[in-house]
Each structure stands twice: as C-alpha cells, then as structure tokens.
Design goal:
Blueprint: H1 6-14, E1 32-38, E2 41-47, H2 57-72, E3 76-81, H3 88-97, E4 102-107, E5 126-128, H4 137-150, H5 164-185, H6 190-208, H7 214-220
Parallel strand pairs: 3-4, 4-5
Antiparallel strand pairs: 1-2
Helix pairs in contact: 5-6
GO molecular function: GTP binding; GTPase activity
Organism: Symploca sp. SIO1C4
Protein name: tRNA uridine-5-carboxymethylaminomethyl(34) synthesis GTPase MnmE
C-alpha cells in the first residue's frame, strides 16, 4: 500500500537518500533500485510504487510496474504499517504475490506495537521495523539470509560478493582440502590429513565470521588420533 514507509525503509537500509520520502501517498511512482550486500550476498532492492486503485495516469503506470516487479522478484518484502489493521487492500496485494517467497515487514513500530497487527496465518516470516529510527534492519537482513540459506529462494543469478581477504581464505581452504584428498589417496595416517582439514575449517571460519576455537576443533576431531 502507499505511505507505509517503503521508501523510508530503503533509505534506512541503504544508509542513503535513494528514495524521495513525503507524507503524501503516491510519492513513489517509478521503481527505485539500490544495490546492497547482505551477509556476503549481493541484493538488488526495488522500491516500488504503492499498489492501489488510482485515476492518476502516471501513478497507474507505476502501480502496474510494481505488480510486474513483484511477480518477477526472487523475494517479496510485503510492507504494511503497525498503525493500521490488515485491510482489504493488503489482502488483495497479498493474494497477488503469495506464490512468491515472501517476508511480511511490519513498519512504523515506533508508533504502534507490531503484536497488535493481524495478518493471514499462511504468512510465516514476519519482521518488525521502524525505518525512521533505523530499527529492525538487522532482523530483516537475518530473515533474508535465512531464506537464501534455506534453499527455498530460487534466485535466477545468485552469487556471492567477497573481498580480497575472503577470496584468499577460500583459496587456502581449497588448497587444504586438496591436500586432504592427496593424503587420503596415499593412505597416510589420519593424524596427517586432519591437520589440513583443520586448516580448511579455520579458513572457512574466517569467511563466515564464526569463531573456530580449539575446543570446537577438539570435538570435531575427537574420533581421530591426532599427533601432538
């Protein structure tokens, strides 16, 4: 719907003024694109015109483009506001995109609690945000990453954005795993190939941000006889 804070959400998320924001419904009439990186995954975010019946010909074209963008999106962020209840307009929009992978974003929670907002039971992924206060962005990114890693998000051209440090870590991990394969092929003792496997795990931990401590490694290799 118009005026639920979609453009404010994009601006808060991208930390920019990509989209024009006013209190007037129908301000956004064309699609505004922003390129973001969420947990290493490049994301193209489209801020679209609010979907509603209108006699304004320019806004009507924007609404048609919004529907087309939603139909072709890998993931739909259906934004509503916490200050109003689920409306017939919300239901109509939802019915047009419910076949897509979807996250319901309840915005303006700085004005009203998200818990009081009703929505269809079929919606399972919900995130509360307050775009004007930059609240809920981390939760939104987490929900998006969960969609990506679940395998349910059928992106047409999903790739990873990595920096030089991460690329170097990937190369080290690949090299270590190749050394593991060679060591196994030569039928050397386990304590030889687990050294390289340990190196691969540590390199991948640098990329994911997960701390691979000695205690974790000890649990992984507890079944092996590792030379000290």
């Amino acid at each position: 719907r118009p005026n639920v804070g979609k453009s404010s959400l994009l601006n808060a998320w991208s930390q920019s003024d990509r989209a024009i924001v006013t209190d007037l419904p129908g301000t956004t009439r064309d699609i505004v694109e922003s390129q973001l990186v969420v947990g290493g995954v490049p994301v193209q975010v489209l801020d679209t015109a609010g979907i509603r019946d209108t006699l304004d010909q320019v806004e009507k074209i924007g609404v048609e483009r919004s529907l087309t963008a939603a139909q072709n999106a890998d993931l739909v962020l259906l934004v509503i506001e916490a200050t109003t209840s689920w409306s017939a307009a919300d239901q109509e929009i939802y019915e047009q995109v419910q076949h897509r992978s979807l996250i319901l974003v309840i915005n303006k929670t700085d004005l009203a609690p998200a818990e009081k907002v009703s929505y269809p039971d079929s919606i399972k992924n919900i995130v509360a945000t307050a775009a004007t206060n930059n609240q809920g962005i981390d939760a939104l990114e987490k929900a998006i990453l969960e969609k990506v890693h679940s395998g349910n998000l059928k992106a047409a051209d999903l790739d990873l954005a990595i920096n030089r440090r991460q690329a170097a870590a990937l190369i080290r991990a690949k090299t270590s795993l190749e050394q593991v394969q060679a060591t196994i092929a030569e039928q050397l003792p386990w304590d030889f190939w687990t050294i390289d496997l340990r190196g691969a795990i540590q390199a991948l931990g640098e990329i994911t941000g997960e701390e691979v401590t000695e205690s974790v490694l000890e649990r992984i290799f507890s079944r092996f006889c590792i030379g000290k």
